[in-house]
Amino acid sequence: MKQRTMWGILSLFLAGSLLLTGCLVGPLQTIASAGRTVTQEMSIRDFDRLQISHAFEVEVRQGEAFRVVVEVDEAVLPHLQVDRVGNTLRIGIVPGWRIFRGPTTLRAEVTMPTLAGLTASGAARVDLSGFRSSSALEIRASGASVVQGAIDAGDTTIAASGASRINLSGTYQDLAVEASGASDVTLDGSGQNLRANASGGSEVDLANLPVVDARLDASGASTIYVQLSGTLDVEASGASNIYYSGDPTLGDVSTSGASSISRR
């Protein structure tokens, strides 16, 4: 049932995106695969944020020197958008060229010293490795995108929407987690205080990420798993479920519409 729901949301997202893009930039042009892959290194540096789109598969590694390498179908090269705006590296396709005909390679490798923020959209896939920091971090995935890997950070915000998936391991300070529109967020490791919101058939699994205090909000047939030792505040509605482990003190608890909270 959840798989059908995710595909339905994804279909609506893609249809809406195409309609909106067509209204904004006119008819979309089609990039037909040339069947030949080219690799190009880009001379871009001084960024600590990433914006990945258009179904690109990107490996992001921590390193002292900046390095950006793209591997794409030869037909994509004239329409490639790889640039820096402020402190953000953008990787995608220029507006108006968003439909591909035939198998098309869209890959990139990025090396950077620090990562402060990541936005993945339009069925992008991003793998993270090697980052260890106590600075703030923000990760957002939308439109059936996937973000996974390992990263340590300070106060962290994580949001997945539109049938997206985020799967990370690491050590964090305070955490704000949001999943909506049939999305999944899974975090392993450890954290301090937690605020988590799941809606629209989404799931937030933090069973292997012990925290101290947690405030949870689940709605629309969503599920949250949490492990904690401090105070647990809960609001669950619309056939949602919250499962907790550890030995917390129950604070403000409100359930309605066939929702439940239970110990695992």
Notable features of this structure?
264 residues; eleven-stranded mixed beta sheet; 55% strand; disordered N terminus; Pectate Lyase C-like; twelve-stranded mixed beta sheet
Overall description:
The protein has 264 residues and is mainly β. The protein has a single domain, classed as 3 Solenoid (Pectate Lyase C-like). 9% of the residues lie in helices and 55% in strands. The chain has one helix spanning 2-25, and strands at residues 30-32, 37-42, 49-52, 57-62, 67-73, 80-85, 88-93, 99-101, 106-112, 117-120, 125-132, 137-141, 146-152, 156-160, 165-171, 175-179, 184-190, 194-198, 203-211, 214-218, 223-228, 231-236, 241-246, 249-255, 260-263. The strands form three sheets. A twelve-stranded mixed beta sheet has the order 2-5-9-4-11-13-15-17-19-21-23-25, with no helix packed on it. A hairpin with a 2-residue loop joins strand 6 and strand 7. The longest helix has 24 residues, at 2-25. It is globular. The model is unreliable at 1-25 (pLDDT under 50).
Quickly give the structural class. Answer: mainly beta
Helix content: under 10%
Q: What distance lies between the first and last C-alpha atoms, to the nearest angstrom? A: 24 Å
In total, how many domains does the architecture comprise?
A: 1
Short characterization:
Helix content is about 10%, strand content about 55%. By secondary structure, it is mostly beta strands. The strands form 3 sheets. Strands 2-5-9-4-11-13-15-17-19-21-23-25 form a 12-stranded mixed β-sheet, with no helix packed on it. An 11-stranded mixed β-sheet has the order 6-7-3-10-12-14-16-18-20-22-24, with no helix packed on it. Strands 1-8 form a two-stranded parallel ribbon.
